[in-house]
Records
---
Amino acid sequence: MLILWRLSFRALYRHPWRTLATSLGIALGMAAVLATLSVGANVEANLRQSLEAGVGGADLLVVPGTDGRAVFAVDEVLPQVRAVPGVGAVRAVLEIAAEPERRGDAPQGTQIPGFDTGFRLFGRPLPADQPSADYASNSTSDDLTANTAATEVDTALTLVRGALPTAGSQGIAVGAGFAEARSVAIGDEIRFASRFGDLSFAVTGILDDANGIASSNGGRVGIASLADVRTALRLPGRASYLEVEVTDDLRDVEARLADALGERYLVTLPANRGNVPTGISDTLAAGLRVLAATLVALGAFVAYNTFSADAVTRTREFALLRTLAFTRAQLRRLALYEALLIGVLGVLLGIGLGAGLAFGINYANALLLGYEVRTLVLPLPQLLVAAVVAVVSALVAAWIPAQRAARTSPLAARRQAMTAPPPRRPGAGVLLLVCGAAVALLPWSGTWSLFSSALAMGSLFFGTTLLAPTLLGPTFGLLRPLLVRLYRLPATLGSGFTERNSARNGVAVGAVTVGVSIVIGVGAMVAGINKSISDWVETTIVGDLFMSSPGNLPAGFTAQVSERVPEVEAVSGVAIRVVRLEPSPTLPLERARSISLILVEPERFHPERGFGAFQFIVGDAADGYDALADPDQVLVANTLAQRLGVTVGDTLALRTRAGTASFMVGGVIVDFTGGGEAVVMGLGGLERFGGGDPDLFVLTVRPGHDATEVAGALRDAFPDLPLDVTVGQAYRDEILAISRRSFIATNSLLVLAAIIAALGVANTLGMNLSERQHELALLRTLGLTRRGLQRLVLAEGTVVLTLGTLFGVVVGGVLATVITAGASSITGFPIAPSYPWGIGVAALLCAPLVGLLAALAPARQAGRLEPITALRRPAG
Amino acid sequence: MTSPALQATALVKTYRLGREQVAALRGVSLEVARGSFVAVMGPSGSGKSTLLHLLGLLDTPDSGDITLAGEAVGALGDDDRTRLRRDRLGFVFQGFELLPTLSARDNILLPAEVAGRGAEAARRLPDLAARLGIEGRLEHRPAELSGGQQQRVAVARALINNPVVLLADEPTGNLDSRTGREVLELLQQGVRDQGWTIVMVTHDPHAALYAERIIFLRDGTVSGEINTDRHEARTMIEALVAG
């Protein structure tokens, strides 16, 4: 009915600030949902663009297949590739990790294997002579060319300075970011250490890292001629992959190539080349989902708060409408239409806020996952889901107030005592609080813990709202000496006001409770996660020194360490690889996924002889040792085990160089590597996954020796090796910092929770005031000064904030248990709440101060009240 | 024979105030003929407002019957009573009770639009507004109108659905004497020329004299009744008011 819409619109228009504050509550909830739901899409889109930038104009890549080789002979496969119809230009690329030698003045940092990809050196077919800055290659290369007269443009390698290297020049063009960080200039000689040997190149140009290959990997890339890299590495005729341009339907060519090349080679889209374990972004998204759901609930509660107070404030208006013409159903519809309009406004605001929040989370993820922020994606389906959540939460929040409005008696308009408080229901409040606490403290598991989180939150908040009115009086009594000292007589008057408006103030107390308890509850979860990570690092990442080298290590390196540096007690190697977990009959995954494989020496984890230890979820140290010693067993990180639903005795299918092989789960442990998507096995299995040297050596130092001094002795003992030696605690701190970055986004959403709660409080206090203008004007008429009126409002605000904070600290403590259980069930991380009691105590101590600040604006507004103007308005 | 516009029989209404039972009406009966102007007077607490609430279907009696244009309303549910209130009754209040967010035009048309007769009412509005002297003020918000103008808008709103009875609760209570007189003359003229039926609650003898008949309430019962065309009406009113 048009008139209902018109009335709804005008009611919202008449109170723009109230409308905006309520919409903002809904919008912030929606923004959280939108940003959270688009985490995956943004990670994917940015990674895809990064990877696509890394291969220039290639449509497809041909990479080594199941045999796990790092490089392959181009001649072995090129004829088959070229024979496939639809294949255009083909380029061989040799890509390796090569660590540039650090200079004395360059910033030094610990490189963490498994977390840091390091510098990438690309050997690409470059023209023999290429003076121009914008380079398009494909017609000339050293040993392979297009099988057609291709004219497509290759990666746009834009130079900011200098020129691209030419074949045979031993030159290199490096990313501008890298050049700046390392103070590299054209003409400088850079020495690189790599697994294939040492390399030396002269810088011929600086690449613009705004686009192309140089825009990937943080600008830590170098482009040299393929021929020169092959010569330097002594890898004639070898490539890491082939870039293929297609002249036909991409999918058809991909299928034809896959058929032609068989198992030994994999044909893939450039975007699928990424080795970032999908689990990290899954973990992020899952963790954020818990908080987003909480924020939606909080936003809805703020909206409920407003709608409730509105229903009380507008009793007279509703009663008049009932008198004049409106049925109960029409009045209910009127209230719901307003909620719908608020929801739509919230959606519009939420899209903007969500985009901002998504950008922030995207930025945090880029830091964590090591990609560049290239785009922001807000997928339509996710946008629609978030919009529906926003509108539905507004309608749900409005439902009870709408029912209350519909029950308004027409006579209410005729009664003088419009603001008579509704009957108190402290008993129901206590019952809800007890039920909520019981639900929160019961040991739920799996998805039940999520359901119970929502139920507990709802019960605790509504219980607070119902019980708070009864406790406002006693709270005022407790604070009375302080308030009278601060505000004198108006404090006594404020007592009456607080109690007489107890129902509405109860809702305000609820809003404060929500804010404080969310901060404490989610804070306890985050603190719990941090503690879990700390425990893991302290338990598992044990060792006095951690040593890695980007270069090739000599044979028998471990023995040489003990010989040359006798202060070293034990040396234990660790290799970290990214492997493919394949679907299998016992584990039917939707598709294969990349996970981290950590290979360790079993002896380090021997229950008696070893110096390392795992935290076991299933199994014990003896089982763990047996599993590591068995080449067909793995230990699985709890997160991955929970996500896959596997436990001890189950099998996982991992792709090895000899094809897919089954590995039995020998134990379930805590491990946060790769966002918790990791398996651990004995180092003896390294050959099955591509071979090579360990990436890291964990060393213990004999008692009585200083680790820092031993680190220096190690560097001195191997002057020709580019060793990166870090003292244990510094290494652990670095891992801790990297792991905790996962929760940057969570913490940012926590701040959002506090903002929503604050918004709710300000909103309620503002509404309290607007409703009581008549009474306040009467007090002014009777002689209360402006200052007195301000003090009265401040006294009331202080009582509301103090009671709300008290409730919030208690409820937050209870909620922490269930929120943490919910987060644990979604992320798979073993998390126990770690109560941030410091925050609780600070919140309690600050409550009167915050109350003062929150009530300041309404108090000033009250102080400006002109008695005559206000008295003209009807009461209520 | 035409049925009376409004008929109340033996209305009883008791309220609970704290622990005490207060009998607001103790068996009030009255009949309002179509096209008549009836005033209800009485001291504070006599039951005037309660009677108006019952006649306006805003509240239900503990016992007794009410018939509106021949239709008994006792057994009707809330929605039916609302519809009856919307279609057959009009209300004018002491405090005007206009919606501040709506213009005068929208306030007047509100009951008709809710009833789904907005277009028809909009056609009648110019004539009605002209009769009430507010044709130039229709686009103004209540805050932009004088008290007298606001009350005229309230009267227009009460009449927009062509009600059987217009119930007025102290309609001049918030107006100065001249403006109050104008409003009362307007109501009187409407009864005379347009055939409106009005029940007006007032404590003001001067206002009551504009009605054709005055019913006096005291302690929840009808204590007297006079026709104002009698020469000695004013004296009788003063006597009855004095108790």
Note: The interface with chain A takes residues 49, 53, 56, 58-59, 78-79, 82-83, 85-86, 91, 93, 95, 97, 99-102, 106, 110-111, 113-116, 118, 157, 169 of chain B (CB under 8 Å).
---
Amino acid sequence: MGTQSATTSVYKWGMVIDQDLCIGCQACVTACVMENNISFVGEADAGYGRTMHWIRIERFWEGAYPDVKNTPFQPVLCQHCEHAPCEPVCPVFAAVHSLSQKTNLQVYNRCVGTRYCANNCPYQVRVFNWSDFSRPEPLSNMLHPDVTVRRRGVMEKCTFCLQRLLQAEDKASSDGRQLADGEVITACAQACPTNAIVFGRIDDPTSQVSHLAADGRAVHLLEDLGTLPSITYLKGGPSYGRNG
Amino acid sequence: MVATAEPLKQAHTVGAEDPHEHLMLDPKPRGEMNGMVMDAMHTTSWKFWVVAVFLGLIVLTCLLISWGYLIAEGLGVAGVNRPSFWGIFLVNTVYWIGISHAGTFVSALLRVMKAEFRRPFTRAAELMTTFGLIQAGFSIFMHMGRVWLAYWLFPYPNVRTLWPNFHSPLGWDFLAINTYLMASTMYLFLPLIPDLAMARDRSTGWRKVFYRILSLGFRGTEGEWTHLRTGMTIFAWAIIPVMFSVHTIVAWDFAAATRPGWSSTIFGPYFVIGALQSGIAAVGMVVVLIRATMKNMKYFIRPEHLDALGKLMLIVSMIWAYFFFNDYLVQWYGGDKFTQMLLEFHEKGPMGWMWFGMLICNVAIPFLTLWNKKIRRNPSMLFTIGLLINVGMWFERYIIIPVSLTINRMPFTWKLYFPRIEILLSIGTLAFFVLIYMIASRLIPLVPVWEVQEGQLAHGLRKVGKAEVKTVSEIE
């Protein structure tokens, strides 16, 4: 938590996920894995609840089996809460709040692996490096150079593609301007074929995310907990949960 | 009527309703008693060594090798997953801290309350505190993802001015457990000094050197006793709030989290009572074992003492039942959707047998058996009940940690937890506890012989009119 330099702009990043548009194709999951050097845990571990995806597509069935009415998809990733339950419980300050991006950070090098943050996350979006999972041949040469490769025993989670944000912010500030809307987006938003994921500044009232977040269909996940998430979900339109 | 003298007579026959029956009113000469304690310490049969070697092998394989494998491979070889990020390692941590509580409870609380029946087994209980805390420490280090960086939890000065987070209940826990470990070790050591001096005067060879170093030159002068008594009184009083705070803070690890079933304001006292429940039962087990296996112990530890411990177990079990009901009722009445699902999962889910087993072991069995004086006085019965209570309390912690973690607010992630290498490591920690206890029983006097002698000096029969009355007088 360094001091804020006067020239740095402060952005509040956020996301809108339209569940009426989501088709559950998992392109965002794949893009996230490639962007952020996420380990492949293999089938057995994945089946035992050890997937390490920072974003997951939850599929729900509404109604009992033969009479399934809807099968909505819900992509869930770190909600970047303003009042994040994961942060105060870390005994070594590995889970901290970024002052300049208004996101939750995870400092891999500081993490000692108590896993308290993961227990305390109501969204269950934190993933733990259970082992040093191996990367099969071509993938081992395809690591993103700007992203830390995590070792066993540390917690990790969605960073809102922090490396992209910092690069764009640096570029904009060296040009002496503010970031334009849509100039930087996360890997999941970039990969989404139906544009169900929209990323941008929620402190800018003219941005696309701000417009969408003001929609009548907008909800927050587990809003009653008072975590003030930065991600808004849109759902309940005519196409909600209709697949095919 | 004829029944004039009858009740008086009854009160003085040993048995029935005599409140002073545990006073050991058959004192032996000091020298003889010291000799008995020394004898108990020196006598080892081949069985002792067979058990010790067996336990040593278990410690080697199940604790050291398994732990090394766990550190080298990462927690993937354990059973933890999402959502059960915490598993048996923390169950064991809470369990062992609970065991360690009884030592202090039996010793310090009964000491300041002047409960005379405590005298012969305070040391046996205090040893459990220190050795139990060692196992708790092991368990929490096994739990950590990067245990080689555990020192980061210490508030030590460093160039990057990085400090531990004092907002985190785990940080409080770390400080509380360390405080308790140090305080309880001091508290174990102080009353040990006179006995070590006694042992020094009665040994030769390496033992003489060992006891001479440990007894700090204690000669038993008036001044030394005064200082020792002052020190013990201060520690006995000061350690009681420390003891309560430790398990309360352990409970806050759970109560301070935003999880259904955990955020309960009663968790603090509920955990303290749970700790006493398993701890006192464990004291009962240890006392029975010592009595059965060590020489001369039948003089020091008598059915009367088992009886008193049995009563204590019964009372604590009733308080535990009260707290459990209190916690359960309010959670259930609250009607929160996820808490409701969790409670249903406890009873009807795949681990329902454990939930009912917990209630049977912790409530039903003590209630149905410990009212009976014959059962309380029967060593093997008391041992069995103590064992069952410990199983029940371990189940309770298992239900609170991995079973409750199964149910969270994101149903998509629900997953049951199955332990893997944790089982080996649990056996390893238990074996290590028993092993160091066995070694300690041959190295330090397990009966605080000066305390027993002090008790026998203070206890006596006095004639009041025609009746003989058992009395306890203050020495200090």
Note: The interface with chain B takes residues 45, 48-51, 56, 58-60, 74, 76, 85, 88-93, 110-116, 118-120, 122-124, 127-132, 152-155, 222, 225 of chain A (CB under 8 Å).
